[in-house]
Amino acid sequence: MKKNRWIAALLALAMLLAMVPAAAFAEGGSMVTSGEELLAAVDGAQNGATITLANDITLSRTLVVKKAITLDMNGKTITYDGDVDGDVDENNQYDAGLIDLYSGADLTITGNGTITYNKDENGGYMGEDSNSTGYCLRAGGDAKLTILNGTFDAGLTCVQAGDTAVVNIYDGYFRADASWGDKYWLLNLIDNSAAQINVYTGRFENFDPSASQTENPEKDFVANSSMVEGPADNIYSVVLCPAQYDGKYYPTLADAVADVVASDSKIGTVTLLKDSQGGGIGLFNSKGAVGVDLTIDLGGYTYTCTDPSVGSVGTESQGFHLEKGNKVTVKNGAIAVSEASTGTKMLFQNYCDLTLQDLSLTGAAVTQYIISCNYGDTTLTNVSIGGTHPQLVALDVMHWLNESYKDKAPTVTVNNTEANTINGAMDVYCYGTGADSCTQKPTLSITGGKFSADPSSYVAEGYVVSGSDSEGYVVTKYVAPTPVPTQAPEQGGSTTPVPTAVPAPTATPKPLATARPVATATPVPSEAPVVNEAGAVVVSTTTEAQVTESAAAAVVEKDQLAEAVAEAVAEAQKAGAAPAVRVEVTAAEDAASVAVTLPSEALTELAKEEGATLVVTSDVAEVSFDSVALSAIVEQAKEEIILKVEPVQESALSEAQAQTANGQPIFELTLQSGGEVISDFKTGNATIKIPYTLAEGQQAEGVVVWYLDEDGNTTPCETSYDEAAGMVTFVTPHFSKYVIGYDETLVPAAPEVSEPVTQPPVEETTADGAKLPVLPIAIGCVAVVLVVLVVVLRKLFAGKNDESRGY
User: Are 739 and 728 in contact (CB under 8 A)?
Assistant: First the structure.
């Protein structure tokens, strides 16, 4: 989440600076220490130069700019202490401001300084002449002015623009000492000009830049991506809009969601651009919200729910109210209820198909329920839940047996890791007439995570619970203990058999090319389908990779994969088995990474078959998707799916991740479609085989693959290692970064071997006192008897055989 937040912050900054001219970042220039030096430096500067203030300075006359320069205020102050007396310069133009920009000027002001004037002796600056009425910055001709920050303290007008001049204000504080005609003139366009003033962010004293009364009719100087807040203490603040949808910016998240509902397609992604707050958000069938496919990407930010809350008439008590017949995804950030809220008693009231991914959900003291599901399918992936209500309920899963909802019991699936904690109770029940005898029970299935309440009643098959009320409960996948061979005794006894090694794939992987390669030949599906160990009918198809700088890229064409799928389905139906398609990528022997592009249409057909599986194998890795994972993938896919396996360099890791990895091999698995990452396999799994050579002193039992999260935390995967093939195999419910690690505690201790104890032979004393060893004599006697017995038996059987043969 932290990473997503930084990325979103950088994108917001990039949006602000995208229109900033290059001169704002030009290198070179001079440092000035006085007003005269500043005037001379501007007059003699080359285009693109930067002039920096070394200390506070005083100007005795107007600073005229006709070039492309950057004025770095360096936190200092320019004080104007002269007259603007209306003298005409050589261009027949009046000097009217503290800083005047003429045609050819492209001035950027940065460095967070202050431009003001001597208010004790302002002379003509605040005189009666129309050309001496207290301008701070004036732009004319085709001049361009960019203000990045700073304080601008004018007599009457901070910025005036005329002709075709363009002024962009990205931040700053603007004020004036005087009004004129009962209004403030902080920003002003010369009448009948084609000039522009655009405000992205900033603060304005006694002046609303979205409704400037300096123009007739009133002028809105605020950029489309921004909005005005206030006034607070007579200050109007221009801030970035908190939400965006389809290139348009919105003052609230609810407004953006409403536009998705009102759109023709009813499909859209709303992105949060900063931490923000607002009232409840609802998708109501009665207001046209049917068939909506809405994604809310929080962008790493926090949305705080305030009053008023939303809900059905009479129960307006929810932060989000989502009715059936819709599909909603909320991801990448945090949602909290304001402690000032008195109405948000439930954070999510859900009746639709809802996906919550990479989220932190926090209730206030008034919020007893975090998620209540009465209909539809809900999936939580990497979601943490908490709150301050004394009887907090994290998950409330209820089959409401009324006419609207009795036809379908809700399902909730939790696919968390131990890094995600769900605090609060979990209730699963039927409600309404016939609840006790209802056969359609709601279901809660948990495949991982940490919980404050015991989740044992809801864990999925193959998962186990450990922990206690005091320490919390952790759900993990059950891993059967590895059988340990016992050492055979020196004589006699039996040996515990060693388990059969997992068969190694025929290829030797390594880790990617992102570019789509041009196929060098038309790949052909293999002729003879085979049956794998699971009893599925396997049809293989082959495609050749192109390798560039150790990155392999391969494309499976639509017709090619469709043919393989059709054959697998047909053969499987004949055999009464499940179909499996194996995509073999060749010519990747020298690659360290691989990218395989698959057409989603054929995979969608494959996923329709019960128990269908997909395997993609190369010299880099073998990746297998079970039927549940395959279905989840195609549900999220667009035209093409790109599977990537690539090593991760230490430089690409966070400090915490690098410290955890400690030099061990790291690789990343990703699935992308239409520019979106597919990481949710629902309850399905992928099985990955990667080549790995044991380091000196390592044993196969100690090899373990860890999932590595953004904070450097690790979660062990179900892992096995085939020493003969040099291949590590692990199972995961999602794609991310993984470390091939080693844990000595997994290696069974060597059994102690006891030295045989030599007993002295038992001796017998003869009549003359001599000692005779008893055991050797007894053994000799037994041996003689056995020899005699063998001879006798051979004679007997020989005679019998002779008689039977008629000899």
Answer: no
88 touches 67 (CB < 8 A): no
Quote the CA–CA distance of 157 and 185 in Å, as a whole number.
5
pLDDT tens for 151-160 read: 999 988 999 9
Q: Predicted confidence band at 787 (pLDDT cuts at 50, 70, 90)?
A: very low
Tokens of 554: 């391969």
How far is Cα 783 from Cα 280, in angstroms, rounded to an integer? 97
DSSP codes, 437-478: T-SS--EEEE-SEEESS--GGGBPTTEEEEEETTTEEEEEE-
User: Which of 147, 48, 59 lies closest to 98 in space, CA to CA?
Assistant: 59
Six token digits for residue 195: 């000039």
Task: Provide the pLDDT for residue 194.
Answer: 92
**Residue 361, beta-bridge partner list:** 335, 385
Residues forming a β-bridge with 231: none
In the chain, what is the greatest distance between 2 CA atoms, to the nearest angstrom?
Answer: 153
Note if the pTM is more than 0.85: no
Decide if pLDDT at 746 tops 70. yes
SS3 95: coil
pLDDT recorded at residue 28:
52
Q: Is 550 left (phi over 0), alpha (psi -120 to 50) or beta?
A: left
Rounded CA-CA distance 739/670 in Å is: 15
**635: nearest Cα among 255, 325, 355:** 355
Q: How far apart are CA 95 and CA 132, in angstroms?
A: 9
SS3 685: coil
